Amino acid sequence: DVSEDKIVFCGSDDKTLPELYSYSFKDKKIKKLTSYNQAVLKDKYVAKVQEITYTSQKEELNGFVLLPKDYDKKKKYPAVLDVHGGPRAVYTKAFFHEMQVWANAGYFVMFTNIHGSDGRGDQFADIRGRYGEIDFENLMDFVDAVLKKYPAIDEQKLCETGGSYGGFMTNWIIGHTDRFCCTASQRSISNWPGFTYLSDIGFYFALDQNDAKDLIADYEKLWDHSPLKYIDNVKTPTLFIHSDQDYRCPLPEGMQMMQALANKGIDTRLVLFHGENHELSRSGKPSHRIRRLKEITDWFDKYTAD
């Protein structure tokens, strides 16, 4: 809210949960007004965000790493790569609760802004017709850079997850590399031709994002960028999280991918949340949000246990 002499806003940083603050135009100072969430983090480990720059496709990109609780350079740790949705979204150093949960559970957590992300202009964010190409290369180069900087990460215990576009990338990743011991695909896309006339975002979206004009005439273009096409390459155990009222990335998208893995004899599981939609992780019922995070963490723990 804005008045003549100040702005009152809700804000957080990499070490705190949201609180209310005021900013004075006169003295240009920020004052903290509330401490509603201060007790929540008392005596809890909050990982400090470590920034990392790396080169991918001859371009300098930025990413972030959280160190596991009680970090010891002499020990080995599992790690989680988290891919944001969008793709036009952006990671910052802000407090992200699920990443802090994994850091507290003994995981390195890594996340980055690849091509397709916001924050670096429209040209950088525009990956239409290139889904699964430059973005995938950026992610793999980022993982390589993190592994080089933090040799305490066990390369045999790399996990990955993402939702929406991040779920698409999870499905794409498992069809193009087996470097991850397990993945968790959330509210994902697996089949662009099928998605075209199912999603409430409108039929034009899939065509536009794949640089296509017509579903039939450009069918091969959409299919080439569909994770489901590469199912024969998949070896990675994968958990699927979906909501039965998700009309943005409809249930059949996750269902197809899960059934294809099951048919190949690959360990898989679909956790379906009734009465939830695309916003499950953000505004779903608290009990469902807790269950979602527990399912993902349990899946990681299963495949990283000694």
Characterization of the model:
By secondary structure, the protein is α/β, with parallel strands linked by helices. Helix content is 30%, strand content 23%. Strands 4-5-7-6-8-9-10-11 form an eight-stranded mixed beta sheet, sandwiched between helices. A three-stranded antiparallel beta sheet has the order 1-2-3, with no helix packed on it. The radius of gyration is 20 Å and the shape is globular.
Write a compact overview of the structure shown:
The chain contains ten helices and eleven strands. The chain is an alpha/beta fold and 306 residues long.
Q: What are the defining features of this structure?
A:
three-stranded antiparallel β-sheet; alpha/beta; 306 residues; 30% helix; eight-stranded mixed β-sheet
Order of helices and strands: EEEEEEHEHHEHEHHHEHEHH
Instruction: Name the strands of the widest sheet in spatial order.
Output: 4-5-7-6-8-9-10-11
Specify Rg, calculated over alpha carbons: 20 Å
- Unreliable stretches, pLDDT < 50, 5 or more residues? none
Gap from first CA to last CA? 51 Å
Share in β-strands: 15-25%
Characterize the main sheet.
Answer: 8 strands, mixed
The helix/strand class is alpha/beta
Number of helices: 10
Q: Overall pLDDT, averaged?
A: 97
Approximately how much helix is present in the residues?
25-40%
> What is the total tally of β strands?
11
What is the overall silhouette? globular
